[in-house]
Amino acid sequence: MSQAIDTTRQFDDLVATYYRSWFRFHPERAVEVGVPGHAHLLTPCSEEARGALICLNDELRVALEEIDAGALDPDRWVDYLLLHGAVQLENQYLLDLEPQRPDPRRWLPVSAIYQLTIRPVDDLEHALSSRLEAIPAHLEAAKTALAAKAVAVPAPWASSTATAARRGAEFVSGLGAHPRIAALPHADRLAAPMQRAARALSDFADFLEREVCPAAAGDFACGKEYFDRLLRLRHFLDVPADALHAFGARLYERTRTELEAACAELFGHRDVVRAVREIQRRHPPAERLLAVYAERMRAARAFVIEHDLVSVPAHERLEAVETPVFLRHEIPFAAYCEPSPEDPEQVGRYYVTPPLDEAQLAEHDEIGIAHTCVHEAYPGHHLQFATANRNSAARSLPRLLNASATLYEGWALYSEQLMVEQGFLDKPESRVLLLRDRLWRALRVMLDVELQTRGLTLSDAADRMVQALGFPRSQAEADLAWYTRAATVPLGYATGWALINALRDHLRQKDEAFSLRAFHDRLLSVGSVALPLVIRRAYGRETWEAVRDSVFGATA
């Protein structure tokens, strides 16, 4: 017993000491998880900072490997695995990947300013002033660093960062009108730093367009070695990339068959693209878009409570707001921003991007809005994150800082299916959209593997999305742009969805008293981390192996 206590104390001290130093290199992450003392800082991007972070991670890895992990309690064991994997991945990125494919976005400080407008921070005026004042010198250093590496920058990253910087300048220059900023005692003192920061961002966009974009010819692909390590050390999937690709291909073919049959039954033809276009004819006017999203969001929440599908925290709410201007090129339609774990009211933000034309407005069709509200709000992302933030074990720093799409995106995709099964998404066309979106996520599994490990080009990937899903090419390219920076995240949707369904089936067969609400509550209790770890923590290794093998076949 005393040895276990000593090991627990040793691990807790190690975690606390490590993160006190780690947050100096990641001040924005500190603000996101509610750790005070870093809101006035920008992320350091110098070579000196990079070297110091590598050393810090190496020291932690060695210290962790000296701990008897078997003596830790089950929750600390989860944290141990997450932290041990995270330091290995970050150092491999810093040592092997980042020098070979520099990303100009890691220098971009727009999100560092935006987060101060939505997160609880001490002395907001000081924090905002400090970050604004630091931006010009920060971006001058970025120019020096990137000028020498321009040819290694992947072209999509150069162009998207230039767009983000240009729109970020617009956001920062108008920051004085933000209610939270305007209410500050000395808001007028921030006007000059805002304008200097906005000019620096505009100059940075000019620099990228003039000097980096024409030369940028780097390869965004992370490669098979790093991809496999992401699967093992972030998502804890003991499944090879080729097996995941085969799973995606099987799911794609099965879903396409079901989707074409659903189209034939409902519309009298098997043309998926044509069927979706018919569904998109019914949409609200642009001026009512936010209001309609809010109405459907509230209706979904009420349905979840009425049908006792999953516990809803006592204090949480979700606000439908327009997407910030600097994110609109990355969020064509809608997205979710989770609340801070330190927010007592757990207020999330549901971003809706104002459509620029009739074609974009058509993407906000009435039935599609209901599906999106289920995915992003209830019982999807917002309910899942708010639940995790209310659970003390689920909100440890290793869990908050190492989320996995297998859980948070797998749950959101499963939520759409659940709400069709339970009758909330009850229109006949809902099955067509459900299957079309599942087809999209199955295709993502294959594209993720092929883009990052098999040399698939963005142009060829866009062709496949246009042909299979009927996306406008601009939408396909916008979707693919984030895949390039987020290896293994696109495959998390369908992979997590399949694992949750397999787990549900497995437990139902074993337990005649199976309760859907109890299953959902238990699944969401571990946090937003790798679904294989969640299943092992909540149900045991044997259950995980049975679920894994039912989805992918025997792989271990």
Structure characterization notes:
This protein is mostly helical and 556 residues long. The chain has 2 domains: 2-212, no CATH class; 229-494, no CATH class. Helix content is 65%, strand content 3%. The protein is built from 25 helices and 3 strands. It has helices spanning 2-25, 27-32, 47-65, 74-97, 110-118, 124-147, 155-173, 179-182, 191-212, 224-233, 241-267, 272-279, 289-306, 358-362, 366-376, 381-389, 397-400, 405-421, 428-453, 458-469, 473-485, 492-510, 516-524, 531-539, 541-552; strands at 317-322, 334-337, 347-352. Strands 1-3-2 form a 3-stranded mixed sheet, covered by helices on one side. Helix 12 crosses helix 19 (428-453). The model has no long low-confidence stretch (mean pLDDT 95).
Notable characteristics:
556 residues; mainly alpha; 2 domains; 3-stranded mixed β-sheet; globular
Q: Largest beta sheet, briefly? A: 3 strands, mixed
Mean pLDDT: 95
Number of strands: 3
Elements, N to C (H/E): HHHHHHHHHHHHHEEEHHHHHHHHHHHH
Which strand order does the major sheet show? 1-3-2
Radius of gyration: 23 Å
Number of domain modules:
2
Determine the structural class based on helices, strands and strand pairing: mainly alpha
The number of helices is: 25
Shape, per Cα inertia axes? globular
Helix content: 55-70%
